[in-house]
Design a protein that fits this description.
The protein is α/β, with parallel strands linked by helices. Helices cover 35% and strands 25% of the residues.
């Protein structure tokens, strides 16, 4: 087992006394695909927001490759090698696919996210942007505005934007949500492809996707870790069956 690249100890987040995340210990092994699953309201997205700096924890600690990143802002977390996609697409409708990726590549330089940039400034990122678009199956859509892309292709573009940041850890929030079967299969293959050389942490409701991708699965319930292990082990655990389906289904 590889040592963890991302780790939490006693991580908690309260909202007016409600424990959305409560004392979570998490170890994400270097080079693994790790899935967070659980019923609605289990705390998965809140945990993602804590890991990426969009929320400050009430308690506990987060480390990345042994360095404390607890409470850092999202941009500082990203600069340390953590990138995420969101459950809801966050693209600019009139900006082309190529320009999205060029802006992400530019963000890694001293220029930052500068929307007043000249075309000449972005030219140096063009070739790499086209490579990344090809990697996610969007070579033919480089000049297409995001608004004109089908839903599954928008999610692929979000992945290309995240990969442009060259992350050590890639966090995917429900990457197949709202997709049809064909897009789901394409996304599974894509995640298999891009995981090389990096660690992937994903929130996912589709258990077929989890079974296809995850080396390790953590089940959350009421903001705490209920069960952790391989997919087959977790799937058969009576506590997980109860959490999803209720007591009456345990012996069926």
């Amino acid at each position: 087992m590889h040592p963890p690249i991302l780790q939490t100890r006693g991580l908690g987040k309260q909202f007016r006394g409600f424990h959305a995340v409560d004392g979570v210990d998490l170890d994400i092994a270097t080079g693994s695909v790790h899935a967070l699953v659980g019923p609605n309201g289990a705390g998965k997205t809140t945990l993602f927001n804590l890991l990426t700096g969009f929320l400050r924890p009430t308690s506990g600690r987060i480390t990345l490759a042994g360095q404390d990143i607890t409470g850092l802002s999202p941009d500082r977390v990203a600069r340390r090698g953590v990138a995420r996609s969101f459950q809801i697409t966050t693209l600019f409708p009139q900006v082309t696919a190529r320009e999205h990726v060029e802006l992400a590549l530019q963000a890694r330089t001293g220029l930052g996210w500068r929307f007043w940039r000249s075309e000449r400034q972005l030219d140096r990122f063009r070739d790499r942007a086209l490579e990344l678009l090809a990697d996610v199956g969007l070579a033919d859509a480089a000049e297409v505005p995001a608004a004109a892309l089908a839903y599954g292709r928008k999610r692929a573009l979000e992945l290309a934007v995240a990969l442009a940041l060259d992350p050590r850890v890639l966090l995917l929030d429900e990457p197949t949500a709202g997709m049809g079967a064909e897009d789901i299969e394409r996304t599974i293959a894509l995640i298999h492809q891009v995981r090389s050389g990096r660690t992937v942490l994903l929130v996912e409701h589709n258990m077929t996707v989890v079974a296809s991708l995850a080396d390790q699965v953590t089940v959350l319930q009421h903001g705490t870790v209920l069960v952790e292990g391989g997919y087959a082990e977790v799937r058969a655990d009576p506590r997980v069956i109860t959490a999803y389906l209720g007591e009456s289904h345990v012996d069926r």
